[in-house]
Design brief:
Radius of gyration: 29 Å
Shape: elongated
Number of helices: 13
Low-confidence stretches: 5-11, 506-510
Number of strands: 22
Helix content: 25-40%
Structural class: alpha+beta
Strand order of the largest sheet: 9-17-16-12-13
């Protein structure tokens, strides 16, 4: 039994209406309706089976109805989630000696979209959040094959954010939303003036993933480790997408609830931008062009950045250390097919070099991948000779990801290969075959500490780490347009710790 009406409005009669009933997975029901009860008596809402026994209500939310000019007594709107209901179940509202009840059947699913669009935005947001937490509610987003199902009309009424600029709200200038390869989500809502102490930020992620038949299926995405912090002129939220969902998502959107004051709430619909780890972390310290400068705001942002960095290291350091310890023995990948990889193929003139050195690769490799701005030109000598298959660009990246455990990767950096050829030692430029453990470590480092979007940059950093000599730094700092030198120092130190996690490297070349 539920008692949501302690602060109800005065009046004599109880009123109860069931506007919509939706069948859920597993036989449960979603009931949406409204109720009015007098303020001078405690009211109770419940479901009653034939024979008078109460039926369990698994979840309930209540929302105040917007004031209506012709209604002196605003109702309470409710959303109830139940298990399967026996035939003849009644929905009951009781206050003192007064009781009213109706059949526990509404107008059905057809009313859902219109009802959510007409109800307060708070109700739609709460139900969308419930969809992410309760698999039984997920089908509401695919109802009647409409874009985002019963939430389509409600989502269409939210404030859209294009890029990161918020154009329609005076209190909010920017809502920057970013995602990383590891599934991290960063949200920074910024204003040009200080946010009030009672400001709050909530988020629900929605997207699409293929269903069993390969069709795009709208979903509410579960999030892990949601943290919110308030800065003087920003609200910062951070979460992670459940790994079970991450690889299957084809699109991702974020719905933000930004409460400036108890009586002022904004809802924003954002499409997050893919970001590198340095960009993601630096967003914490960025400000709007018209933000009020101040040492306190900058210091608070740096403190938060250090806290986020500490959380990331607690999450990533153990698996990175484990992968570093599992590195294969020198001959572990020797029995596997050899996959050649030319990195940094950025100069079209390098094609001339490979015209005369192609046999160096053909004698060592069963297949060749080429990555770089001039990959097509560099690959032409190998394509014309036709001795080994050649893969370029995005297809080469995918082939590298799929190679773990199935091929030993012989990586060559084009500039180093040119220098080795000039010195008469071309064989010295080839790494020993990188096996499954090396490639797993590469992918983990690219996700957790990748400095550029391209996987080739992370592989070049890993190869440099392998051949590092005593006294050389394990990590070369990222050069970019940082929000401040202090943020650059914190983030680069964090990345250096992740890249150097594990036992000391030993040379893999020769």
């Amino acid at each position: 039994m539920l008692r949501p009406f302690e602060d109800g409005q005065s009046g004599e009669a109880l009123q109860l209406g069931l506007a919509c009933e939706v069948a859920l997975q597993g036989g449960g029901r979603l009931l949406l309706g409204s109720a009015r009860a007098p303020a001078d008596a405690e009211a109770t809402l419940w479901l009653e089976a034939p024979g008078g026994q109460p039926c369990p209500i698994m979840q309930a939310r209540f929302h105040p109805e917007p004031a209506q000019p012709d209604s002196p007594r605003p109702a309470r709107l409710f959303a109830l989630v139940t298990d399967a209901l026996p035939p003849g179940t009644r929905l009951v509202l009781q206050a003192g000696d007064q009781r009213t009840d109706i059949a526990g059947e509404g107008s059905g699913e057809s009313a859902l979209a219109g009802l959510l669009a007409a109800w307060p935005a708070e109700a739609g947001f709460a139900l969308l959040a419930d969809c992410a937490a309760n698999p039984a509610l997920q089908p509401l987003l695919g109802w009647q094959q409409r874009p985002f199902g019963g939430f389509g009309d409600w989502l269409a009424g939210l404030n859209p954010v294009r890029g990161r600029m918020v154009e329609t709200l005076a209190e909010i200038e920017e809502a920057e939303t970013l995602t990383s390869l590891a599934g991290e989500v960063m949200v920074v809502v910024r204003g040009s003036a200080a946010f009030p102490p009672e400001a709050r930020l909530e988020m629900v992620a929605i997207g699409q993933r293929p269903d069993a038949a390969g069709r795009a299926e709208p979903v509410a995405v579960p999030l892990l480790d949601w943290h919110v912090a308030a800065l003087p002129q920003a609200l910062v939220g951070q979460a992670r997408i459940d790994p079970a969902w991450l690889d299957r998502l084809s699109t991702l959107e974020l719905v933000l609830r930004v409460q400036m004051r108890p009586d002022l709430v904004h809802f924003l619909r954002c499409r997050p931008r893919a970001a590198t780890v340095p960009d993601l972390l630096d967003s914490i310290c960025r400000t709007t062009p018209f933000a009020e400068p101040g040492d306190a705001a900058g210091a608070a942002a740096l403190d938060l950045l250090r806290l986020v960095v500490a959380r990331r290291e607690a999450l990533w350091a153990p698996p990175l250390a484990s992968l570093a310890a599992q590195r294969a023995a020198p001959d572990a990948a020797g029995h596997l097919p050899r996959l050649g990889l030319i990195l940094g193929a950025d100069d079209p003139l390098a094609a001339r070099l490979f015209q005369v050195t192609a046999p160096e690769f053909e004698g060592r490799c069963d297949r060749l991948l080429v990555m770089g701005d001039a990959a097509e030109a560099v690959a032409q000598p190998f394509i014309r000779r036709g001795r080994i298959p050649v893969t370029l660009g995005a297809a080469a990246v995918q082939a590298l990801r799929q190679a773990a455990g199935r091929a030993g990767v012989l990586a060559v950096e084009a500039p180093r290969f040119a220098a080795a050829v000039a010195a008469g030692r071309p064989a010295s430029a080839f790494s020993r075959p990188l096996g499954a453990a090396d490639l797993a470590r590469l992918l983990a480092l690219h996700a957790s500490a990748g400095c550029e979007p391209a996987l080739a940059d992370s592989l070049a950093r890993l190869l440099r780490l392998h051949r590092m000599q005593p006294g050389e730094p394990a990590f070369l700092p990222v050069q970019r347009g940082w929000s401040s030198p202090h943020a650059a120092e914190v983030v680069n130190a964090h990345l250096a710790r992740l890249w150097s996690t594990g036992p000391a490297e030993t040379a893999l070349h020769g």
